[in-house]
Every structure is written in C-alpha cells, then in structure tokens.
Amino acid sequence: MSRLIVVSNRTPGKGPAAGGLAVALRKTLAERDGFWFGWSGRLVDRPDSEAVFEDIEGIKVGKIDLTRDDHHAYYAGFSNSILWPSFHLRLDLATIEGHWYEGYRRVNAQFAQALLPHIAPDDVIWVHDYHMIPLASELRHLGINNRIGFYLHIPFPTVDALYAIPHHNELMRDLSRYDLIGMQANRDVSAFTEFADHQSPSTLSGSPLKSVDFSRTEVAAFPIGSDPEAFARLAVSPAATKMVRRMERALGDQALVLGVDRLDYSKGLPQRVEAYEKLLANNASLRRQVHLLQVAPPSRDTIKEYQETSDTLDAMVGRLMGRFAEPDWQPVTYVKRAYGQPSLAGLYRLARVGLVTPLRDGMNLVAHEYVASQDPHDPGVLVLSRFAGAAEIFEDALLVNPFDTDETAEALRLALNMPIEERRHRWERLMAGAHDHSVDRWAESYLSRLAPTGQNGQPAPVR
Ligand code: F6P
Q1: What InterPro entries is this protein classified in (predicted)?
Q2: Ligand 1 — pocket residues by CB below 6 A?
C-alpha cells in the first residue's frame, strides 16, 4: 500500500483545525506508514528551510516555521479575509489587499520546498483546505508526479463569488493540478462544475488566461463525519456525566437549547439569538421553562470582521437579558471559551435541542456530534440550517432557513414540544446517517478513490 502524506495548515495537537482530522487519520497514517505535514505554529525571523519531524499523539508530524509577515498575508490575509468570506458568500465581509496573494503563494511554495525531500515516488499526498490550494502546482513545478488529492472542508462558492476573488483563475488552474478534488456536499460539486462549464473570460491585467483544463482532475462529494460510536461512549463517560450533573443542578426543570460554534460570522449567531428572542417574545409560557446555552470560543480574533461579530453578539445577548431576565431567572448563558470533548458530549446529551444554524457551512460536525451523543430512549431534536453540508445527510432534522428568524423560532417551539415517539423516530434515522457518514468511511472512500490499490496492494490504473 502506498505511503500517505497528509498536508494541512494546522498539525495535530495545534488547535481545532486538525483536532477531528487527527483522530480520523491517525489509524490510516499508521497503517500506511505515513506522516502529517504543516505549520509549526511558530513565527520566526528566518525560517529554516528544513522541516522538523516529531511524534505527536502517535502521529509522525513534519513542521515548518513561517515569518510573521508571510503568515499574516497567507492566513489572516488571503485565506481568511478573502477566500473564507468569499467561499461563504460574504463578499461584504471580504477585505482585498493585493499583496496578500504573493504571501499566500510564497507560503505554499515554502511548504512544497520543505516537503520535497520527504516525498518517495509511490507516496500519495492528501492536501487539506483553502490555505493550500496552490500546493499541487508548486509540487508539480518541482517535478512531483505522484497522485495528489485535495479536500475542501468549506463550501465551494457560486460562480459570481468566485469571480470576485482576485486571481481566481490561477487558483482554479491550481486546482486542476490535483488528481482528485473532494468536496463536502453535492451542492459544492455542482458549483464547481458550473465554474468549469463557464470559465472566466478575462483578467484585469496582462493577457487573458486560457481556460482551465480539468481533464486530469476528478471532482466528487465525500461528506466528512464524526466517530459516532466514540461520541456515544464519550457522552456517558464519567467526565461527561459530571458535566451533565452540574448542568442538571443549574437548570432544574428547564429544557436546554444548546449551540456550540466557533465565534465566526458564518455560524449565524446573531440570527440565532434573534430567533430565540422571538421564541420567548411569542411564547410567554416558555419563559422559565427553557434556557439557551451558547458556547462560542473566539476564533481568528485579529481580524476586524470577527471582532465585530463578537461585539454584535455581546450587544444582542445583553439586550435579550435586559428584556427577559428576572432577578431569579436568566434566559441565556453565553460562554466565550472552548470546552473539551467530554464536557461537550455531556452537554449535547443533556440538550433537548441542538441548535445548529450556520448561514453557510461546509459540513458542520457539531450536528454529527449532537446526534451521536443522544440518549436513544430520550433523544433531543436537531434544528439544522439547510445551508450546512450536514443538511444533505440529516433530512430528519428540523431544517430551517437561518436568515428567517421567525422560521427558526417556530422550529424551536416545535422541537421543544415534540412528542417522544417522533423524537425517537427522527433520531434513529439521524443516527443511521451519522453511522453511514462516519469519519472512518470518509477517509477510506476518499483514499480508495485517490489511490486505488489493485491486487498485492499495488496501485491500480485509475482511468
Ligand atoms: O472549517 C474549516 C476550518 O479550517 C477547520 O478545518 C477548522 O476547524 C476551522 O476552520 C478553524 O480554523 P482556524 O485554523 O482558522 O482556527
């Protein structure tokens, strides 16, 4: 079996980006004697051109340092102030600074140079996410002809939003240097196909780019998932149960509505608070009967748009409290910090409603984890945005348009009043969806398409 090299911005043990992935790929990397490659988390004046390898939680990891300026242009700049908002259809929140693109390319070239000496002829390379779109181009430029796959964890934009991204044609050409592009959802594959069919006719400066040739590239949806069995076990573990007991004491008879999201404008948090406010305004009988817990660890907080989202939310939660809180009752608890998975699993299990309402989301693994953590005898209800990739899998959730806060408020009311038989019935189908789309199956189905093995573990002809 070919060796596997996984490349992503963050490496295992470094924050949320690689957390779930690391768990998913640890087994595969061990089986294939592979390694992970990414940024060390360190910013230095003069980065060493050689990667440093170490063992992290049982995974061999190669890392490189970046300069502060390059990292800013590549991560906070091009990746998260241009690509992220555009891919999430928030062009109003994009900031375009021309020089960020050079930094983005420089960092990708640096990754390619540092990775080059560690690539053997049969290795299969799996590149993750929008920070790394040019990596295959850079590697091909250095003479690497190995199978290289790309997986996009976020949604693919519509044609118009893509055209608004500076250098979109080069980026699409970069994508065409991969053998397999994996997307989260069918809607993303359709958006990509639409671009491939249209193609941008010109660029602003220089000669118009020729249209991009995608003939070597296969594109398909491989929806990512969680490890539902592990989450189900975690939800009844002593650490989770401790959190459940703590919350039960605090809540008394109140039904818990739970949101868990990075503090990101794509997650629809202001709309969520507004929907909850409408629920309380329209249903006086629910006051004192229900409690919203929103967990929102800060994310990318050097970026202005993230700070503004945080300020907006502070003001909205304050308004909600002022309007509905009583000396002895609070409608909402808003926690701006991260919790470990055992505590989250306990909270998911206790919550009568899992409120997952991003305005647009690649997949949304909170939806998967919420489903997996439920008590089969007394499961809660998932209220899910139809604009999350997860909506293609969890059709038995209460699907809502998160921009329509009346609709979300009504879905919340229905969820809180849903009879147990219907909750069980819906949950069984949701859980079947979580099983069918487990993270292990995701990795297996992607990798068997990227590097099919024939008899004797030899690579099989692809086309
Ligand atoms: O959803 C895309 C993603 O890059 C995830 O992989 C990650 O969990 C999340 O965004 C957080 O990103 P960052 O690395 O910017 O903190």
Answers
A1: Glyco_trans_20
A2: 10, 15-17, 129, 153-154, 299-300, 362
Tokens of 248: 């039960």
Over the Cα atoms of the chain, what is R_g?
Answer: 23
Number of neighbours of residue 55 by Cβ within 10 angstroms:
9
Asked whether 289 and 254 are in contact (CB, 8 A), the reply is yes
Which of the following is catalytic: 153, 167, 368, 437? 153
Place of tokens 């989260």: 184
Question: Tokens 């919203």 label which residue?
Answer: 292
Closest atom of ligand 1 to 131 CA is: 4
**69 burial via Cβ count (<10 Å: 0-12, 13-18, 19+):** middle
Q: How far is the CA of 290 from the centre of ligand 1 (A)?
A: 31
How many Å apart are CA 105 and CA 189, to the nearest integer?
Answer: 25
Q: How many Å apart are CA 63 and CA 14, to the nearest integer? A: 11
Catalytic site residue 361? yes
User: 274-312 pLDDT, tens per residue?
Assistant: 999 999 999 999 999 999 999 999 999 999 999 999 999
Nearest CA to ligand 1 atom 11: 17
3-state SS assignment for residue 156? coil
The predicted model scores a pTM of: 0.94
Question: Which residue is closest in CA terms to ligand 1's atom 14?
Answer: 17
First-to-last alpha carbon distance for the chain, in angstroms, is 19
